[in-house]
Amino acid sequence: MLSRYFPILRWGRSYSGSFFAEDALAAVIVTIMLIPQSLAYAMIAGLPPQAGLYASMAPLIAYAIFGTSNTLAVGPVAIVSLMTASAVGRIVETGTPDYVAAAAMLAVITGLILLALGLARLGFLANFLSHPIIAGFITASGILIAASQMKHILGVEAHGDNLFAIVQSLRDHITQTNPATFAIGAASILFLFATRSYLKRLLRAVGLKDRLAASIAKAGPLLAVIGATAIVAALNLEARGVAIVGDIPRGLPPVGIPQYDAGLWIDLAGAAFLIAIIGYVESVSVAQTLAAKRRERINLDQELIGLGTSNLAAGVSGGFPVTGGFARSVVNFDAGARTPAAGAFTAIGIAFAALFLTPLLYYLPQATLAATIIVAVLSLVNVRIIRETWAYSKSDFAAMAITIGGVFFFGVEIGVVAGVAMSILLLLYRASRPHSAIVGQVPDTEHFRNINRHDVITSPSVVSLRMDGNLFFANARVLEDRLLALAADAPAVKHIVLMCSAVNEIDTSALESLEAINERLKDAGVTFHLSEVKGPVMDRLKKTHFLDHLTGNVFLSQYEAMRSLDPETFHLSKGLPDS
Amino acid sequence: MLSRYFPILRWGRSYSGSFFAEDALAAVIVTIMLIPQSLAYAMIAGLPPQAGLYASMAPLIAYAIFGTSNTLAVGPVAIVSLMTASAVGRIVETGTPDYVAAAAMLAVITGLILLALGLARLGFLANFLSHPIIAGFITASGILIAASQMKHILGVEAHGDNLFAIVQSLRDHITQTNPATFAIGAASILFLFATRSYLKRLLRAVGLKDRLAASIAKAGPLLAVIGATAIVAALNLEARGVAIVGDIPRGLPPVGIPQYDAGLWIDLAGAAFLIAIIGYVESVSVAQTLAAKRRERINLDQELIGLGTSNLAAGVSGGFPVTGGFARSVVNFDAGARTPAAGAFTAIGIAFAALFLTPLLYYLPQATLAATIIVAVLSLVNVRIIRETWAYSKSDFAAMAITIGGVFFFGVEIGVVAGVAMSILLLLYRASRPHSAIVGQVPDTEHFRNINRHDVITSPSVVSLRMDGNLFFANARVLEDRLLALAADAPAVKHIVLMCSAVNEIDTSALESLEAINERLKDAGVTFHLSEVKGPVMDRLKKTHFLDHLTGNVFLSQYEAMRSLDPETFHLSKGLPDS
Questions:
Q1: For a pLDDT cut of 90, what percent of chain A falls above it?
Q2: Which residues 6+ apart lie within 8 Å of B473 measured at CB?
Q3: Residue A477 and residue B424: Cβ atoms within 8 Å?
């Protein structure tokens, strides 16, 4: 029982030396990747660089205790950092101590929401985010992040929380571009694209093994950071206006509850909810993908608790909202991480960097960090999936397009809310026009099929409608409309049979509609019958008065119903010739 | 084509003298009922009495031109009047000319929304209002209206836009009760309950025919109004503090667009949307009930246009939002109305009253009007349906309870929005846990059934899951979870077959989940197959790359699938004895 909420009790018991060796190696590789990433994501979030390091320590240890994935690498990620900047930037001025405190508080609220969802087992709320909405959201956010980082490449001031404001602001300031900054930024971007595209191939060509070549190619950002830092320091480019990271306070994160302000809590709650859900969905999809490769499982409810405690830990240790990151988790997996302990070891690596390595990052140019971000997020942009969604489903495409347009024009939060609203509307729209068919008898069989698709026998006095789906509030009115139309359009009809073979549930709305239909058909002189009602549905109907009021009968089979209502029309010829 | 948008062109062509006689008789009866009702509903809406008369003229003529129900009686109704008071009272002070203009503007906006929904064929939005929500809303609103009218019975000042505020305000003022007013009010309530319960029986006992007795019993409110007016005038009760209707301006309504104020439009838009939807749902349900009795049909999209033009007409002629009323429509039907012309004739009757009868209403006590309202709305309170919903479906009951609580604590708008949000949440919750079953072979047959319910044959290397419902975003993640669990929990499994016999649709989210499942099972060394995929679903899958990537096959029948994957386990013994 206790190990349900503390998975560490399960895997910790069988922890061995060989696990330790593998976890530690993976942790070293992930740490090297995470140092520049954590600084870069802090920059996206509008926070000082140390916030990125802080968000990469305590949360990883919390996840190691409470998380269920053996390979998920928790920490700051690009999209959640963008959402943090959007939420906090709206109510506090960037660059102030209040901004730092508000970002930490956002992490606390996000953590509490995730914990509450986990304890109440409300993870199903994440289902509101359909795949097309997530894909559209990620693509649009990637473009938005890339655009927002262009100011660092150009070395200009530019603002805006939607794509068009950012682009316009960049255009207004482009004449003030700093040449040295632009040279560093553009060179970094080219270098990063080159290492990503060609380095692995080059290393293999000179004889390195596949795996090693791939690992070194992934170190492109680290090489760019080292090279750019050396160049800036050697050529004293700071004096030529190149913005550098500068002093990062050495040491471990300050621990404490961020300054409390009741007004802020409420202003941040909506954003925290969206960050919680989006972070959860992203994280779970990575964790499931990796778990499946080793036939492991993750627990969806416990993941809420794992990510919740991680965010709480981030918030009380000077960080900002975190979640499981895709690229780092894949590296962690490939590097051979066996248990969540790898994450804890990564936290130790980052703590080492925070204690001893920050002076080395003094001359790191912001333009190079921005370049690592741009190259990373542009890989999130997925045009293929947009095209494929268009081809497969126009309504899913509509939800996706509204999400993308919302993010571009109004920012991340409105984008995702508009997408969710659209997909609920479309769901209800589809549910409100369920498929149904008037059925007739396939000659000489007990089968009844759609009269529009098959050559079947029908009767002028008995008609039967088959509803292909559950009967519930979204289609209750349509059910009334279709059944009453059968009576209104054909005055000779005496009996209507509703064929329920595909009905697994009848909710209160549909039950009342059936009662209304029964009453109205009675007024019109038509008897109303049901056929092929499933067992569980029948059990619930028996608890109501519906069956007492029903003018007709409930038949076990469709054939039995039609045969007893119009034996002259519906029968089996029993092999006799027509006569 | 033209007659689709102008139904009057259809029925008008065959209009005859006998229709005229029947419509005119019905109109006289409805007019007699409508005069006190229109004054009372104006009082609920917080408007002067003439606004009720105005809202009973132009809208009826508009509906006669654009509506599709032959018997629907459009005009002011209790619940929409309450919603009007709630929406307008929040932004304009009651009793001012601005209040009257804002109520008219609310009708214009409501009309434009209904028209837009009708022209865009978005009537399905009304499906968001499930029956339990409507029932809860009507019951709660009835109680709220009755409570809000108690101040007129007591002759005190009392305010509040939710039940508890109203009750508290009444309690604070109860010592100021005006004895004469209370005597009139209490007597009116007793008289109305008595006529409703006993008058019909009494009249029949003294020899009147059923129909006539019922009609006279319905005239209870008119008798109460006449009697109370006479008593107040005769005893000069006005001098003893009895509030009377007083001067009603004689004449036809002023025509013109209500004063425009851009800020007001936006403040009123949300309320107008709710009034539009709730009014539409109420109206359509009455119209369908009555149409079915004569095997007539109404057109759901055109009804939006009919009610939209009615509200526009109300707004530009000094009225307030209107819809089809239940009680009046039933009287109209029973009195023999044959075409929408009956409504137009009723409008003429009300115009006659506005021109010539208003002086007679001078001494009508407000307490008597309040009594007619209280007796009418208490019949809306339906405890039986609350009890039955509790018995039939706990989740529908939850939506109903939240609606009722919301109306009581926070007012009508929040009540209905909370109910809708709750039912969407519950819908998604149910959809996120679809029924599924692992199936095995019923011995010696080609049937495969749930292994938990039937004694069936299973294989250690091949498992098959049947999903009982469409695959879409709400259950895509659960689908992944369940299928991956099959592989993770049983290491001997080599093949997984997803049985799709109950799947009518696979949306983009579910398609991507199937692709992810396929990839992950491949990583785990498990082959993924589908069986019994329906034709239309297969057609759409063929447009994607899914079938190219699928590691296994798509089998036409479940038996064929299982038989070819594990012929030793799954076969027909063909009548041979076990050996």
A1: 48
A2: A127, A128, A129, A130, A131, A423, A427, B507, B509, B510
A3: no
Instruction: State the DSSP string of A420-458.
Output: HHHHHHHHHHHHHS--EEEEEEPTTSS-EEETTTS--B-
Mean pLDDT of chain B: 89
With beta carbons less than 8 A apart as the criterion, state whether B428 and A127 touch: yes
How is residue B493 written in tokens? 């499994």
Element (H, E) at B21: helix B17-44
Three-state secondary-structure class, residue B191? helix
Handedness of CA B448, B454, B459, B465 (dihedral sign): positive
Is 60 exceeded by the pLDDT of residue B128? yes
Helices (H) and strands (E) in chain A, counts: 26, 8
Q: Considering chain A, what is the average pLDDT of its residues?
A: 89
Helix locations, B67-159, DSSP H? 78-89, 97-119, 131-154
| ∠ CA A573-A576-A579, rounded to 5° | 90
Contact residues on chain A for B534, CB-CB shorter than 8 A: none
Q: Which residues of B, range 280-309, sit inside 8 Å of A by Cβ?
A: 284-285, 288-289, 291-297, 300
Which residues of chain B have a CB within 8 Å of the CB of A431?
127
Q: Is the pLDDT of residue A577 over 60?
A: no
Q: Which domains does chain B have, with CATH numbers?
A: 16-116+142-271+298-380 (no CATH), 436-565 (3.30.750.24)
Within a 10 A sphere around the Cβ of A47, how many other Cβ atoms? 27
A407 and A137 in contact (C-beta within 8 Å)? yes
pLDDT exceeds 60 at position A575: no
- Band of pLDDT at residue B524, cut at 50, 70 and 90: confident
B182 and B237 Cβ atoms separated by less than 8 Å: no
Work out whether strand A495-499 and strand A527-531 pair parallel, antiparallel, or are unpaired: parallel
Q: Which of A393, A476, A488 sits opposite B297 (nearest CB)?
A: A488
**Closest by Cα among A23, A145, A86, A72 to A323:** A72
Which pLDDT does position A495 carry in this prediction?
96
Considering only residues 488 to 507 of chain B, which have any Cβ-Cβ distance to chain A shorter than 8 Å?
A: 488-489, 491, 502, 504-505, 507
DSSP A368-380: HHHHHHHHHHHTT
- pLDDT surpasses 50 at A546: yes
CB B303 within 8 A of CB B69: yes
Confidence of residue A286 (pLDDT cuts 50, 70, 90): confident
Tokens 């692709």 belong to: B515
User: How many interface pairs between A and B have CB atoms less than 8 angstroms apart?
Assistant: 180
Q: Are A189 and A374 in contact (CB under 8 A)?
A: yes
Q: Return d(Cα B193, Cα B190) in angstroms, integer.
A: 5
**pLDDT digits 0-9 by tens, A449-487:** 889 888 999 999 999 999 888 898 888 888 888 998 888
Under an 8 A CB cutoff, do B131 and A284 touch? no
